Amino acid sequence: MPKAKGKARRHKYSYNLNRKRLYRSARRRAAPRIACSHIRHAWDPSKSVAQNLAEMGLAGDPNKALPIPKKMPGMEVESNGQQPGKKTVRKPYVVNDMELEASLPEKKSNTLSRDIIDYVRYMIQNHGENYKEMARDEKNYYQDTPKQIKRKINVYKNFYPEEYKDFIASLKPEKMDVQ
């Protein structure tokens, strides 16, 4: 099998490049990638990760933050109410902001494609609740079974309940005019 044309060109070694210097400077500049904006704004780059997290009241290692007690059954451990090595939290607003953000209700992002919505509306408009007839319809391009069509209609009902009620209400006067 012949070799790819551009492959030899890609792997040419550059003798003029000082790789030791590049590697050292990249290692020195590397900072942790922080996803949470609250932590990012309170982060002090001159301190270590452990120091930054301790100031914010967060734990770097969950096993050290909440250790599992090694008790034998029947043995009781007495404590005077204070935990040894408790650190003061200098930036409590970080934890408070994170708790507030976590307590907000999650926005539902259930959506259907416009094609499925049009398909479901067409089927309901022309066939009502007759799923077997819907399965034989010529617009049933994907050859959905009656149960699959029913499931798609139920998904549409659940995702867009107000739109579905308005659509059904708009169909009733049409049926009255026909009779």
Automatic annotation (TrEMBL):
It is found in: Nucleus, Nucleolus. Keywords: Nucleus. The keyword Nucleus applies. The keyword Ribonucleoprotein does not apply. One of its GO terms (biological process) is ribosomal large subunit biogenesis. InterPro entries: Ribosome_biogenesis_Nop16. One of its GO terms (cellular component) is nucleolus. Residues 1-26 are annotated as: Disordered. Belongs to the NOP16 family. This is Nucleolar protein 16. It comes from Grallaria varia (variegated antpitta). The lineage of its organism: Eukaryota, Metazoa, Chordata, Craniata, Vertebrata. The gene is Nop16.
